[in-house]
Amino acid sequence: MARLAAFDMDGTLLMPDHRLGDQTLAALRRLHEREITLAFATGRHALEMQRVVQHIGLDAFLITGNGTRIHSIEGELLHRQDLSPQVVERVLHGRWETDASLHVFNDSGWLTDKPMPEALQAHLFSDFSYQITDLKRLPACDVAKISFVGDHDDLCRLQQQLDEQIGAQAHICFAAMDCLEVLPVGCNKGAALEVLSASLGLTLQECMAFGDAMNDREMLESVGYGMIMGNAMPQLRAALPHLPVIGHCRNQAVSHFLTHWLDTPHLPYSPE
């Protein structure tokens, strides 16, 4: 029996329009009523997710920045990891052959150097936004992660460049088809969930997790009950072929699975 349930947000709990559906919210509330601990494990910023949990009225632990921060239900910082200043300097001042936009995340928020109003569509439900700043003059300390956003093929080529230059000094992974992230060494949602579960006196085998992208891989493969979304990146499904695949986020598949799990756990599950 799972005692802790961890959920990715974009492409998993959220529908394609980046809203949390009523059925999904009802299913999460049922878990809470069953005294199953909730955790949101996402690439989004802690400041944004604190707004979200306050708005939906659910007690949940927060794993944000793809594992760079863990916050308690009360908002206390439990764990943090930052990129080394050397890596930050190399990424921000390096010459990369890419058309992707550059984004930096630290405890003050989301920082970028050019307006990207289209990027705000994914944050309408939380009203979270970026700050325009000169990234070249940004201090290299206390940076949680750096993201590149652009065309997937372009990002694949960029990933090769980053691997060659800083691969041993950072964890580089796709958070979405159009988002490549540079994270601290050893930092991922799975490692963060292990820290959180241990602090709660639980093992990862007592955890359930849902995700759709390569930044969910470590989390999904380490828990006792890992679920892959039907809309997941092909690379994730290929990397974890033994895990069950549920339905699409547009159909609120997480709520469909949880309803089955809560009401008829003795019956086999089939996606909606």
From TrEMBL:
<comment type="similarity">
    <text>Belongs to the HAD-like hydrolase superfamily. Cof family.</text>
</comment>
<dbReference type="InterPro" id="IPR000150">
    <property type="entry name" value="Cof"/>
</dbReference>
<dbReference type="InterPro" id="IPR023214">
    <property type="entry name" value="HAD_sf"/>
</dbReference>
<dbReference type="InterPro" id="IPR006379">
    <property type="entry name" value="HAD-SF_hydro_IIB"/>
</dbReference>
<dbReference type="Pfam" id="PF08282">
    <property type="entry name" value="Hydrolase_3"/>
</dbReference>
<protein>
    <recommendedName>
        <fullName>HMP-PP phosphatase</fullName>
        <ecNumber>3.6.1.-</ecNumber>
    </recommendedName>
</protein>
<keyword id="KW-0479">Metal-binding</keyword>
<keyword id="KW-0378">Hydrolase</keyword>
<feature type="binding site">
    <location>
        <position position="8"/>
    </location>
    <ligand>
        <name>Mg(2+)</name>
    </ligand>
</feature>
<feature type="active site" description="Nucleophile">
    <location>
        <position position="8"/>
    </location>
</feature>
<dbReference type="GO" id="GO:0000287">
    <property type="term" value="F:magnesium ion binding"/>
</dbReference>
<dbReference type="GO" id="GO:0016818">
    <property type="term" value="F:hydrolase activity, acting on acid anhydrides, in phosphorus-containing anhydrides"/>
</dbReference>
<feature type="binding site">
    <location>
        <position position="10"/>
    </location>
    <ligand>
        <name>Mg(2+)</name>
    </ligand>
</feature>
<feature type="binding site">
    <location>
        <position position="212"/>
    </location>
    <ligand>
        <name>Mg(2+)</name>
    </ligand>
</feature>
<dbReference type="GO" id="GO:0016791">
    <property type="term" value="F:phosphatase activity"/>
</dbReference>
<dbReference type="InterPro" id="IPR036412">
    <property type="entry name" value="HAD-like_sf"/>
</dbReference>
<comment type="function">
    <text>Catalyzes the hydrolysis of 4-amino-2-methyl-5-hydroxymethylpyrimidine pyrophosphate (HMP-PP) to 4-amino-2-methyl-5-hydroxymethylpyrimidine phosphate (HMP-P).</text>
</comment>
<dbReference type="InterPro" id="IPR023938">
    <property type="entry name" value="HMP-PP_phosphatase"/>
</dbReference>
<keyword id="KW-0460">Magnesium</keyword>
